[in-house]
Amino acid sequence: MKGATGGVQRKVQDVYGCAYYVQCYAHQLNLIMQQATSHIPKISQFFFRCRGVFLHFSKSFKRMAVLDEVVAHRLPGASTTRWNFHSRAVNTVYEHKDELVKCFQTIRDRGDFDAISKREAGSCMRMLDDEVFCFILALFHKIMPHVDMLFNHLQKRNIDSVFIAGITQRFTHSIQAIRDSVPSLVEDEEYRGPVQEPPLKKQRAMGEETQQHLSIEVCDTIMSHAKERCSFTNHLISATLLQGDLFPQHSRKFPDSALGTTVDAYPMLDKARLKTELSLIYENEDFQGCSGALALFQVVMENNLQDTFTETISLLKILITTPMTTAESERCFSTLKRIQTFLRNTMAQDRLNALAMLSIEKKLTRDIPDFNTRVIERFATRRAKFLYK
């Protein structure tokens, strides 16, 4: 919980000094992308204009019918709170750009549309033919898969600080790789977007130097905000001590600075004994295949080594029980909003709990063989007894 001075966080830390506040990393990813894109005017304008494409169709069923007829693909709604909606929007516009141009042209040229619809359709056509818009669209089409991959990882239940530290580093490395390849990408015709029809009016050309500068600025801004938001605080620094892919590096040079920060954050740990135990873990090949704190903890417990690695077990327990995301718990509120509608407002608590559990654990119910058939048979039997008693 927040409130570092007089809020819940402060009250908890007054009693439990090592109970550190950790913001949900799924939410932090949204903040990273929102802040990174809003600081660059051209990028901010791009997403604003991209959102206008979806708003144009969402305002009218008549326009939506033309979209279904020409494009045969619905456009995702844009949301300011969840960044994956922006990612879906970019990918949809990039993949169906030519069909969208034809769709807008149809709306503009047909006589049964009003003047406002025709004017907006013409504006969207000019936007999709704009060189700057197409370039930024192609750039983010290359960035978005890495954002989606990170977003999907952050929605998982069984993630810990070791896992977070690893995927955060891989995300920054992927963006850095895109940044390093900018000169070759700018020269690539595919990077400029799909082949376009000649624009209705001459657009200002965007030179390669400007394209490179904008691409580098976007990548640098995303990486800087990612490092700032996902900065290696106490729990992440501690996680690097137990990150499996770093064991070979640690065996050559022990991470004394990370160990010192970890012991300062969790003073109940014995620094000398923890260093000895970690040195043995780094040198043992059986532990190098472990990915994450939970996997390492299970290996130690399965081999009855908890008495040998007492301090490591204590550190693992801290890292395993530190929550990294609140996305799973917040789904309960979304589920309640979907289930308890106006028509179902009088349902009893038992039925509401049962429907919520089925909705939240729908993946589990789908894996049960013949779940729907068995439920229907059970319900039909109960009803038959009720009718004929």
From TrEMBL:
GO terms for molecular function: protein dimerization activity. It comes from the Eukaryota. Residues 307-363 form the HAT C-terminal dimerisation domain. This is Zinc finger MYM-type protein 1-like. It comes from Carassius auratus. The lineage of its organism: Eukaryota, Metazoa, Chordata, Craniata, Vertebrata.
